[in-house]
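yo

u said u wanted the structure for the complex thing, so here. seqs first:
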Amino acid sequence: MAHMGPGSAGSTADPEYWHITGDSFPSIKSEMDAEEEPEHLTKIKLKLQDIQEAHSKIKKDIIFTPVVEAKHVGRKFCNVFFKLENLQYTGSFKARGACNALASLSHSERSKGCTISGGRNFLLAMTYYGHRYSIPTSVVVPRDCPIADRHRYRENYAVVKMYGSDQNDASLHALSYCEEIGTKHMHGYDRLDLMAGYGTIGLELLCQLDKIDAIICPVGSGGLIASLIVAVKSLKPKCLIYGAECASCPVMTRALQEKKPVMVQLNATIADSLANNIAGMNAFNVIKGYLDRIVTVDERMISRAMIMLLEREKLIVEGAAACPVAALLGGRVPELAGKIVVCIVSGGNVNSMRMARVIDRGLAADGRLVKFMATVPDVPGAIARLLVKVGETGADVRSMVPERTWMKRDIFSISVSKI
Amino acid sequence: MAHMGPGSAGSTADPEYWHITGDSFPSIKSEMDAEEEPEHLTKIKLKLQDIQEAHSKIKKDIIFTPVVEAKHVGRKFCNVFFKLENLQYTGSFKARGACNALASLSHSERSKGCTISGGRNFLLAMTYYGHRYSIPTSVVVPRDCPIADRHRYRENYAVVKMYGSDQNDASLHALSYCEEIGTKHMHGYDRLDLMAGYGTIGLELLCQLDKIDAIICPVGSGGLIASLIVAVKSLKPKCLIYGAECASCPVMTRALQEKKPVMVQLNATIADSLANNIAGMNAFNVIKGYLDRIVTVDERMISRAMIMLLEREKLIVEGAAACPVAALLGGRVPELAGKIVVCIVSGGNVNSMRMARVIDRGLAADGRLVKFMATVPDVPGAIARLLVKVGETGADVRSMVPERTWMKRDIFSISVSKI
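structre next:
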């Protein structure tokens, strides 16, 4: 593993847990060993200093999110901590990037306002800080954007414009729309100002925990993990950084295989905020040489991780944020046994209806919700007797569908399905 | 408002937010003004010193839970913070009491073990610390105790015995059972050793926030709020302490009216861990003279508070823990406008199935889930046309029940219900 900087572990930890001021961050500058991997280094544009400057700029306007120890996840395997970006303003780490990007605008850019396109977490963050900094915002979303999301953008006083059938349509339209109304276009993809903001998570973490062996971070287009690599490996080179990607759209895994970002088919995933079809180039250049490992996790593991976080850790997380825990639960990282591992809980913006569905699927995956079919005689009291039998096992009946029409057996029996 | 002690506000706040050591707690002893209310004072058995001693005893084995600022609750009304006891070991503040009670046992009591009866949060906490301190535990629960709960007790290596049809039956049986097997009986009702543990929440809070105008705390039999009163009012007499009780079993409201604990009918409530039929005497004696106000909140407000905490604050809370927020949302505490208010999020142990139901009811209470009936002609394509109309409004159809049998209109129409 290549080291990105000369910082030693001992120099970074703030002895006063949770207590932090701007000055207590180590001022070691990222000086990469140019002789070791010369080609890479010229391509990496994000520097530790950018992240430190972002920290100074945004710290008063973001939440220094808590780190909590896992109570159940990793039990008997490793010591897990969660960095709770779901408790960040706007419910995700994107707040840090949005805050830095908007705080960096010039006075005239601020007064003209911004047109914004991108995913839900990005739009929530940008409209929130737009309102906070008195910057007028317009967002362009596809026509199928959920009512609840549009409502949240409007709560932040954004003008909401609907266009096209998917995110690409909306983003393209945003480009022409912002020229039309004379505002700056802000997208959320592979931008250095956003990444500098995201990286502040790494600076906080190093002050919150004296010892971290590994960090597992969700991977979409790669901005978050790349910025963590720059922040953490510059200051604590020995800390391992792992990426957890959803198997439905493994853009970074494919990019690492092909040695460059390549288009990947976009599949539906519960980790919807990771659904990108190509890795960001700035992110890829960092990740290429310095990521320790990337693993993919499937939908079922993500659901199980979400419900475990909900039930056992009392944390609301979105699918993307559950991927690191899914990697642990799925036994994908056996080499971390006995280690101190931080999972980045990147966000908690999951639709309530979807959360209710995840609970059901998670219970089913855990074998705590079962569906079965039984054929009973078509006489009074037969179904009641079946339900008594079920009750005796200690199980609860959630729903029941009597079926007489499509039965393949004699017409004197009926079938009962339970979910 | 009576003051319980001479501690001044200035002396209590630790200037280093989040940073705490055992020595940083103020050592002011609670010296109540005996001349002011002599009768009361002799009845109050819990002292600040008990809480401070509990803190020394348990601090290494409990979580110093985070305080986070509300992002949505209280917006434009007051500045709300949450003390996250749902992130405590075992998911509730009961961990503090259980830890103190078990840590206080003698060596011989420890080796004999304990028989425990009480509510879910208490049993979870006692079995967890029983295992942690190598104290064998047996729990007695009623026959209808959910499988998931029994599974959790067994995970903590407790022997689980089922007896009787309700909590009273189980508790009475525990009394004879512990004699039979020669263990100590531990219940969770109105015990000073538990309350001393609970009070450590107050000590932590005073170190975490420099300024607190008011604390709103859920009220069941009163142990938690009484211990907070002793801890907080001893050290910061000006801090208001409010209780939020569920309207379904208002034991403390009734006790305050009658000037003594009285039996109250036990009704089903979503805040199930507050469901007690009589206030504790030790708790009542503290609360009687020193509680600033008690308000009741109804089931609907509790559901709405739970869903708001889930969606906007990304917090999993049980019904009881949502009561303080329900009081704010329901406009029950208008005098707190503009104040710094801490809501005690007492626990997060809510059954997942119930959580899914709460989400539905909360959405319905918010008008985001609606049920309606429409009559359409009984011809092919009629229902499809109805659904297209619904889709055009931006709404999603969750479920649909066509009804032909019980229609009161002509037999050429059918009725469609949506939930």
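Residues 1-36 of chain A have pLDDT under 50 and may be disordered. The interface with chain B takes residues 16-19, 63, 66, 68-69, 71, 86-87, 89-91, 147-148, 307, 310-311, 313-317, 348, 352-353, 355-356, 359-360, 362-363, 368, 394-396, 398 of chain A (CB under 8 Å).
cya
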